[in-house]
Design goal:
The chain is an alpha+beta fold and 115 residues long. 45% of the residues lie in helices and 25% in strands. The protein has a four-stranded antiparallel beta sheet, with helices on one face.
Length: 115
């Protein structure tokens, strides 16, 4: 009888632990989404200006473009210590990657192939 109570108590602790982990995961995901939305809103105007001023054979026209969309903030871990960020916009099938750290825009480049 004591063994059954110990097993039931351990099972209850495991279920409670899994529930707590799920709750904290949900809360962190909501905070990360909020932070990402804030950063994307902060970077958007700079990205549009930099993309429209970038030198390229195919001009990037966000204002006045027929088909515009925001792909959003992306990141890739290049090595153990370096994370590269990119904010990508598309206007009339012309892609523009904006690096918010270097404040530099590249038109028609692939985010993962950048230096």
């Amino acid at each position: 009888m004591t063994f059954q109570r110990i097993v039931i108590a351990l099972l209850g602790l495991i279920v409670a632990g899994i529930g707590a982990i799920g709750y904290f995961e949900w809360r962190m995901a909501a905070q990360v989404r909020t932070l990402k939305a804030f950063v994307e809103g902060y970077v958007f105007n700079e990205a549009v200006m930099a993309c429209e001023q970038a030198k390229s054979s195919t001009p990037f026209k966000w204002n006045g473009g027929k088909s515009t969309s925001v792909i959003g903030l992306n990141s890739a871990k290049l090595d153990k210590y370096t994370v590269s960020a990119s904010y990508t916009l598309v206007a009339d099938s012309v892609y523009c990657d904006y690096d918010p750290i270097k404040r530099k825009a590249e038109i028609g480049s692939s985010f993962l192939e950048r230096e």
